[in-house]
User: Which sequence fits this backbone?
Protein backbone atom coordinates (compact mmCIF):
# COMPACT_ATOMS: atom_id res chain seq x y z
CA UNK A 1 0.00 0.00 0.00
CA UNK A 2 1.11 3.59 -0.69
CA UNK A 3 0.55 5.87 2.30
CA UNK A 4 0.98 9.65 2.47
CA UNK A 5 1.45 11.14 5.96
CA UNK A 6 1.17 14.94 6.09
CA UNK A 7 2.99 16.55 9.01
CA UNK A 8 5.19 13.45 9.29
CA UNK A 9 8.14 15.46 10.63
CA UNK A 10 6.08 16.83 13.54
CA UNK A 11 5.53 15.28 16.95
CA UNK A 12 2.65 12.87 16.35
CA UNK A 13 3.49 12.49 12.66
CA UNK A 14 7.05 11.31 13.27
CA UNK A 15 5.84 8.84 15.89
CA UNK A 16 3.25 7.61 13.38
CA UNK A 17 5.90 7.19 10.67
CA UNK A 18 7.97 5.06 13.08
CA UNK A 19 4.87 3.06 14.04
CA UNK A 20 4.00 2.49 10.36
CA UNK A 21 7.51 1.47 9.32
CA UNK A 22 7.70 -1.07 12.15
CA UNK A 23 4.20 -2.44 11.65
CA UNK A 24 3.88 -2.35 7.84
CA UNK A 25 7.40 -2.74 6.41
CA UNK A 26 5.96 -3.52 2.94
CA UNK A 27 4.09 -0.20 2.65
CA UNK A 28 5.59 2.76 0.79
CA UNK A 29 5.35 5.83 3.01
CA UNK A 30 5.61 9.38 1.67
CA UNK A 31 5.96 12.20 4.21
CA UNK A 32 4.64 15.61 3.10
CA UNK A 33 5.86 18.34 5.44
CA UNK A 34 6.72 22.05 5.15
CA UNK A 35 9.30 21.81 7.98
CA UNK A 36 8.00 24.76 9.97
CA UNK A 37 9.62 25.42 13.38
CA UNK A 38 7.70 22.32 14.59
CA UNK A 39 8.80 19.97 11.81
CA UNK A 40 12.18 18.28 12.18
CA UNK A 41 13.83 15.78 9.87
CA UNK A 42 16.01 14.81 12.85
CA UNK A 43 12.92 13.07 14.23
CA UNK A 44 13.11 10.66 11.27
CA UNK A 45 16.93 10.45 11.19
CA UNK A 46 17.04 6.72 11.96
CA UNK A 47 14.90 6.07 8.86
CA UNK A 48 17.05 8.11 6.43
CA UNK A 49 17.94 5.95 3.43
CA UNK A 50 15.02 3.56 3.96
CA UNK A 51 13.95 2.71 0.38
CA UNK A 52 10.29 2.63 1.38
CA UNK A 53 10.25 6.11 2.91
CA UNK A 54 10.25 9.29 0.85
CA UNK A 55 10.33 12.82 2.21
CA UNK A 56 8.67 15.70 0.34
CA UNK A 57 9.54 19.16 1.60
CA UNK A 58 6.22 20.67 0.51
CA UNK A 59 3.80 23.20 1.91
CA UNK A 60 0.15 22.12 1.90
CA UNK A 61 -0.82 25.49 0.49
CA UNK A 62 0.92 24.67 -2.83
CA UNK A 63 -1.74 22.71 -4.79
CA UNK A 64 0.54 22.01 -7.75
CA UNK A 65 3.10 20.34 -5.47
CA UNK A 66 0.60 18.53 -3.25
CA UNK A 67 -1.31 17.04 -6.19
CA UNK A 68 1.32 14.60 -7.59
CA UNK A 69 2.20 13.29 -4.12
CA UNK A 70 -1.44 12.52 -3.36
CA UNK A 71 -1.94 11.14 -6.86
CA UNK A 72 0.19 8.15 -5.92
CA UNK A 73 -1.56 7.29 -2.67
CA UNK A 74 -3.98 4.60 -1.52
CA UNK A 75 -4.28 6.14 1.95
CA UNK A 76 -3.68 9.73 3.10
CA UNK A 77 -3.31 10.47 6.82
CA UNK A 78 -3.55 14.19 7.49
CA UNK A 79 -1.70 15.58 10.52
CA UNK A 80 0.00 18.71 9.16
CA UNK A 81 -1.23 21.75 11.06
CA UNK A 82 -0.24 24.74 13.06
CA UNK A 83 -0.83 23.22 16.48
CA UNK A 84 0.07 25.53 19.33
CA UNK A 85 -2.52 27.66 21.15
CA UNK A 86 -0.19 30.42 22.34
CA UNK A 87 1.11 30.98 18.82
CA UNK A 88 -2.50 31.00 17.54
CA UNK A 89 -3.39 33.74 20.01
CA UNK A 90 -0.48 35.97 19.03
CA UNK A 91 -0.59 35.27 15.24
CA UNK A 92 -3.80 33.51 14.07
CA UNK A 93 -3.50 33.90 10.28
CA UNK A 94 -1.01 31.04 9.65
CA UNK A 95 -3.50 28.80 11.49
CA UNK A 96 -6.28 29.79 9.09
CA UNK A 97 -4.00 29.32 6.10
CA UNK A 98 -2.58 25.92 7.00
CA UNK A 99 -5.39 24.34 9.00
CA UNK A 100 -8.31 25.51 6.84
CA UNK A 101 -6.91 26.37 3.40
CA UNK A 102 -4.22 23.67 3.54
CA UNK A 103 -6.83 21.04 4.40
CA UNK A 104 -9.01 22.20 1.49
CA UNK A 105 -6.05 21.88 -0.91
CA UNK A 106 -5.42 18.33 0.33
CA UNK A 107 -9.10 17.42 0.02
CA UNK A 108 -9.19 18.66 -3.56
CA UNK A 109 -6.16 16.55 -4.43
CA UNK A 110 -7.79 13.50 -2.79
CA UNK A 111 -10.99 14.12 -4.73
CA UNK A 112 -9.20 14.56 -8.04
CA UNK A 113 -7.31 11.30 -7.63
CA UNK A 114 -10.14 9.22 -6.10
CA UNK A 115 -7.99 8.41 -3.08
CA UNK A 116 -9.36 5.27 -1.46
CA UNK A 117 -9.15 6.62 2.10
CA UNK A 118 -8.36 9.86 3.90
CA UNK A 119 -7.97 9.98 7.67
CA UNK A 120 -7.99 13.43 9.25
CA UNK A 121 -6.44 13.89 12.72
CA UNK A 122 -8.16 16.47 14.88
CA UNK A 123 -8.46 17.61 18.47
CA UNK A 124 -10.89 17.53 21.40
CA UNK A 125 -10.62 21.33 21.54
CA UNK A 126 -13.26 21.67 18.78
CA UNK A 127 -15.91 20.77 21.38
CA UNK A 128 -15.15 23.74 23.63
CA UNK A 129 -14.61 23.73 27.37
CA UNK A 130 -16.22 21.75 30.22
CA UNK A 131 -16.57 22.89 33.82
CA UNK A 132 -14.42 21.00 36.33
CA UNK A 133 -17.52 19.53 38.04
CA UNK A 134 -19.44 18.72 34.83
CA UNK A 135 -20.33 15.00 34.97
CA UNK A 136 -20.40 14.80 31.14
CA UNK A 137 -17.63 14.02 28.69
CA UNK A 138 -17.56 14.86 24.98
CA UNK A 139 -18.97 12.26 22.57
CA UNK A 140 -19.10 12.11 18.76
CA UNK A 141 -22.57 13.74 19.07
CA UNK A 142 -21.36 16.77 21.05
CA UNK A 143 -21.86 20.13 19.33
CA UNK A 144 -18.84 21.98 17.99
CA UNK A 145 -18.06 24.97 20.25
CA UNK A 146 -14.45 26.01 19.58
CA UNK A 147 -13.39 29.05 21.59
CA UNK A 148 -9.95 30.01 20.23
CA UNK A 149 -8.14 30.53 16.92
CA UNK A 150 -6.45 27.09 17.00
CA UNK A 151 -9.58 25.11 17.87
CA UNK A 152 -11.78 27.07 15.46
CA UNK A 153 -9.42 26.44 12.53
CA UNK A 154 -9.29 22.73 13.41
CA UNK A 155 -13.11 22.76 13.59
CA UNK A 156 -13.15 24.40 10.15
CA UNK A 157 -10.92 21.61 8.81
CA UNK A 158 -13.20 18.93 10.32
CA UNK A 159 -16.24 20.54 8.65
CA UNK A 160 -14.44 20.61 5.30
CA UNK A 161 -13.56 16.91 5.58
CA UNK A 162 -17.20 16.10 6.33
CA UNK A 163 -18.34 18.30 3.45
CA UNK A 164 -16.03 16.52 0.96
CA UNK A 165 -17.23 13.17 2.30
CA UNK A 166 -20.95 14.08 2.00
CA UNK A 167 -20.78 16.10 -1.22
CA UNK A 168 -18.20 14.19 -3.27
CA UNK A 169 -18.32 10.79 -1.58
CA UNK A 170 -14.67 11.02 -0.48
CA UNK A 171 -14.13 8.02 1.86
CA UNK A 172 -12.92 9.96 4.90
CA UNK A 173 -12.74 9.40 8.65
CA UNK A 174 -11.96 11.88 11.43
CA UNK A 175 -10.50 11.34 14.89
CA UNK A 176 -10.55 13.86 17.75
CA UNK A 177 -7.98 13.23 20.44
CA UNK A 178 -6.89 14.77 23.75
CA UNK A 179 -3.44 15.99 24.80
CA UNK A 180 -0.61 13.78 23.54
CA UNK A 181 2.81 13.40 25.12
CA UNK A 182 5.90 11.33 24.33
CA UNK A 183 9.18 11.49 22.35
CA UNK A 184 9.85 14.15 19.70
CA UNK A 185 7.39 16.72 21.12
CA UNK A 186 8.53 20.31 20.65
CA UNK A 187 9.41 21.78 24.07
CA UNK A 188 6.74 24.46 23.94
CA UNK A 189 3.94 22.18 25.19
CA UNK A 190 3.48 21.54 28.91
CA UNK A 191 5.16 18.15 29.42
CA UNK A 192 8.30 18.54 27.26
CA UNK A 193 8.66 22.15 28.40
CA UNK A 194 8.57 21.08 32.04
CA UNK A 195 11.02 18.22 31.55
CA UNK A 196 13.53 20.25 29.54
CA UNK A 197 13.33 23.29 31.85
CA UNK A 198 13.98 21.07 34.89
CA UNK A 199 16.83 19.23 33.15
CA UNK A 200 18.40 22.66 32.53
CA UNK A 201 17.99 23.62 36.19
CA UNK A 202 15.21 26.14 35.52
CA UNK A 203 11.77 26.64 37.04
CA UNK A 204 8.63 25.52 35.18
CA UNK A 205 5.97 28.14 34.38
CA UNK A 206 2.37 27.14 35.17
CA UNK A 207 -0.62 29.12 33.93
CA UNK A 208 -3.21 30.54 36.36
CA UNK A 209 -4.15 28.27 39.26
CA UNK A 210 -2.89 25.17 37.40
CA UNK A 211 -6.26 23.43 37.79
CA UNK A 212 -7.06 23.25 34.04
CA UNK A 213 -7.76 19.62 33.24
CA UNK A 214 -6.65 17.80 30.08
CA UNK A 215 -7.35 14.30 28.78
CA UNK A 216 -3.82 12.86 28.45
CA UNK A 217 -2.69 10.09 26.09
CA UNK A 218 0.70 8.60 25.26
CA UNK A 219 1.45 9.30 21.62
CA UNK A 220 1.93 5.62 20.66
CA UNK A 221 -1.61 4.84 21.88
CA UNK A 222 -2.86 7.63 19.61
CA UNK A 223 -0.83 6.24 16.68
CA UNK A 224 -2.36 2.79 17.20
CA UNK A 225 -5.83 4.36 17.18
CA UNK A 226 -5.09 6.27 13.95
CA UNK A 227 -3.84 3.02 12.38
CA UNK A 228 -7.01 1.17 13.46
CA UNK A 229 -9.38 3.89 12.22
CA UNK A 230 -7.55 4.40 8.91
CA UNK A 231 -7.81 0.65 8.17
CA UNK A 232 -11.17 -0.28 9.69
CA UNK A 233 -13.12 2.90 10.46
CA UNK A 234 -16.42 3.43 8.69
CA UNK A 235 -16.12 6.09 5.94
CA UNK A 236 -17.97 9.23 7.01
CA UNK A 237 -17.45 8.45 10.72
CA UNK A 238 -15.79 10.32 13.56
CA UNK A 239 -14.06 8.56 16.47
CA UNK A 240 -12.97 10.11 19.77
CA UNK A 241 -9.59 8.89 21.03
CA UNK A 242 -8.92 8.96 24.77
CA UNK A 243 -6.98 6.96 27.34
CA UNK A 244 -9.36 8.39 29.98
CA UNK A 245 -6.51 9.95 32.00
CA UNK A 246 -7.92 13.26 33.18
CA UNK A 247 -5.30 15.23 35.10
CA UNK A 248 -4.84 18.90 35.92
CA UNK A 249 -1.73 20.68 34.69
CA UNK A 250 -0.63 21.01 38.32
CA UNK A 251 -0.97 17.24 38.86
CA UNK A 252 1.05 16.54 35.71
CA UNK A 253 3.84 18.83 36.88
CA UNK A 254 3.80 17.26 40.35
CA UNK A 255 4.35 13.83 38.74
CA UNK A 256 7.26 15.10 36.65
CA UNK A 257 8.84 16.75 39.71
CA UNK A 258 8.46 13.46 41.59
CA UNK A 259 10.15 11.47 38.80
CA UNK A 260 13.05 13.93 38.78
CA UNK A 261 13.25 14.08 42.61
CA UNK A 262 12.44 17.80 42.84
CA UNK A 263 10.07 19.79 45.09
CA UNK A 264 7.09 21.97 44.09
CA UNK A 265 9.31 25.03 44.62
CA UNK A 266 10.38 24.46 41.01
CA UNK A 267 6.91 25.59 39.81
CA UNK A 268 6.46 29.27 38.96
CA UNK A 269 2.82 30.43 38.71
CA UNK A 270 2.31 32.90 35.83
CA UNK A 271 -0.78 34.89 34.64
CA UNK A 272 -3.35 32.75 32.85
CA UNK A 273 -3.61 32.37 29.05
CA UNK A 274 -6.36 34.44 27.37
CA UNK A 275 -9.55 32.38 26.97
CA UNK A 276 -7.89 29.34 28.59
CA UNK A 277 -10.29 26.37 28.30
CA UNK A 278 -10.94 24.83 31.72
CA UNK A 279 -11.39 21.17 30.97
CA UNK A 280 -11.54 18.68 28.11
CA UNK A 281 -12.74 15.09 28.56
CA UNK A 282 -13.59 12.52 25.89
CA UNK A 283 -15.63 9.32 25.86
CA UNK A 284 -13.81 6.78 23.62
CA UNK A 285 -16.68 4.23 23.86
CA UNK A 286 -17.40 4.15 20.12
CA UNK A 287 -13.76 3.50 19.16
CA UNK A 288 -13.52 0.71 21.71
CA UNK A 289 -16.85 -0.93 20.86
CA UNK A 290 -16.64 -0.65 17.05
CA UNK A 291 -12.94 -1.14 16.42
CA UNK A 292 -11.69 -2.87 19.57
CA UNK A 293 -8.96 -0.27 20.28
CA UNK A 294 -7.57 -0.11 23.83
CA UNK A 295 -4.82 2.12 25.22
CA UNK A 296 -1.74 0.15 26.28
CA UNK A 297 0.35 2.72 28.14
CA UNK A 298 -0.78 3.76 31.65
CA UNK A 299 -0.14 7.46 32.27
CA UNK A 300 2.50 7.10 35.02
CA UNK A 301 4.66 4.55 33.18
CA UNK A 302 4.36 6.48 29.91
CA UNK A 303 5.40 9.70 31.66
CA UNK A 304 8.48 7.97 33.08
CA UNK A 305 9.39 6.71 29.58
CA UNK A 306 8.97 10.23 28.25
CA UNK A 307 11.21 11.77 30.93
CA UNK A 308 13.82 9.08 30.18
CA UNK A 309 13.61 9.86 26.46
CA UNK A 310 14.34 13.58 27.00
CA UNK A 311 17.15 12.69 29.43
CA UNK A 312 18.65 10.42 26.78
CA UNK A 313 18.26 12.78 23.79
CA UNK A 314 19.62 16.23 24.73
CA UNK A 315 20.97 16.67 21.18
CA UNK A 316 17.36 16.60 19.92
CA UNK A 317 15.94 19.23 22.30
CA UNK A 318 18.82 21.41 23.51
CA UNK A 319 18.93 23.55 20.35
CA UNK A 320 15.16 24.12 20.76
CA UNK A 321 14.75 24.72 24.48
CA UNK A 322 12.64 27.72 25.32
CA UNK A 323 13.58 30.42 27.81
CA UNK A 324 11.35 31.70 30.60
CA UNK A 325 10.00 34.46 28.38
CA UNK A 326 8.39 31.83 26.09
CA UNK A 327 5.84 30.27 28.40
CA UNK A 328 3.75 27.57 26.82
CA UNK A 329 1.07 25.08 27.84
N1 LIG B 1 -0.30 17.36 20.09
C1 LIG B 1 -1.50 17.06 20.55
O1 LIG B 1 -1.70 16.89 21.76
C2 LIG B 1 -2.67 16.89 19.59
C3 LIG B 1 -3.88 16.42 20.10
C4 LIG B 1 -4.96 16.21 19.22
C5 LIG B 1 -4.80 16.47 17.87
N2 LIG B 1 -3.61 16.95 17.41
C6 LIG B 1 -3.49 17.19 15.96
O2 LIG B 1 -2.53 16.27 15.48
C7 LIG B 1 -1.80 16.84 14.40
C8 LIG B 1 -0.33 16.79 14.70
O3 LIG B 1 -0.07 17.48 15.91
P1 LIG B 1 1.41 17.63 16.46
O4 LIG B 1 1.32 17.89 17.91
O5 LIG B 1 2.24 16.52 15.97
O6 LIG B 1 1.84 18.99 15.72
P2 LIG B 1 3.29 19.57 15.44
O7 LIG B 1 3.13 21.05 15.51
O8 LIG B 1 4.34 18.90 16.27
O9 LIG B 1 3.58 19.14 13.92
C9 LIG B 1 2.91 19.72 12.83
C10 LIG B 1 3.66 19.36 11.56
O10 LIG B 1 2.95 19.94 10.45
C11 LIG B 1 3.89 20.57 9.60
N3 LIG B 1 3.23 21.68 8.91
C12 LIG B 1 2.76 22.84 9.48
N4 LIG B 1 2.24 23.64 8.52
C13 LIG B 1 2.37 22.97 7.35
C14 LIG B 1 2.02 23.27 6.00
N5 LIG B 1 1.44 24.45 5.66
N6 LIG B 1 2.28 22.35 5.04
C15 LIG B 1 2.88 21.17 5.36
N7 LIG B 1 3.26 20.85 6.62
C16 LIG B 1 3.00 21.74 7.59
C17 LIG B 1 5.00 21.05 10.52
O11 LIG B 1 6.22 21.25 9.82
C18 LIG B 1 5.08 19.90 11.51
O12 LIG B 1 5.97 18.88 11.07
C19 LIG B 1 -2.34 18.27 14.24
O13 LIG B 1 -3.30 18.26 13.21
C20 LIG B 1 -2.99 18.57 15.58
O14 LIG B 1 -4.04 19.49 15.44
C21 LIG B 1 -2.54 17.16 18.24
Assistant:
Amino acid sequence: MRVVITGGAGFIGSNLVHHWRARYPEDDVAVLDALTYAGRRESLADLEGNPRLRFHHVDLRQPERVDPIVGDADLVIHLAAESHNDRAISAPLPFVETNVLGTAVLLEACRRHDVRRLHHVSTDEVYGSLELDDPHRFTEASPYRPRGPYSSTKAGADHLVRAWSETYGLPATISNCGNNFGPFQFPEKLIPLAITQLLRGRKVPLYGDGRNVRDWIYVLDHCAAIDRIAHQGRPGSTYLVSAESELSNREVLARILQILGKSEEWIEYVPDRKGHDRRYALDPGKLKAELGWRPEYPFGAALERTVEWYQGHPAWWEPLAFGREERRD
User: Anything to note?
Assistant: The pocket of nicotinamide-adenine-dinucleotide is lined by residues 7, 9-13, 33-36, 38-39, 59-61, 79-83, 98, 102, 121-123, 154, 177, 179-180, 186 (CB under 6 Å). The longest helix spans residues 93-112. The chain has a mean pLDDT of 95.
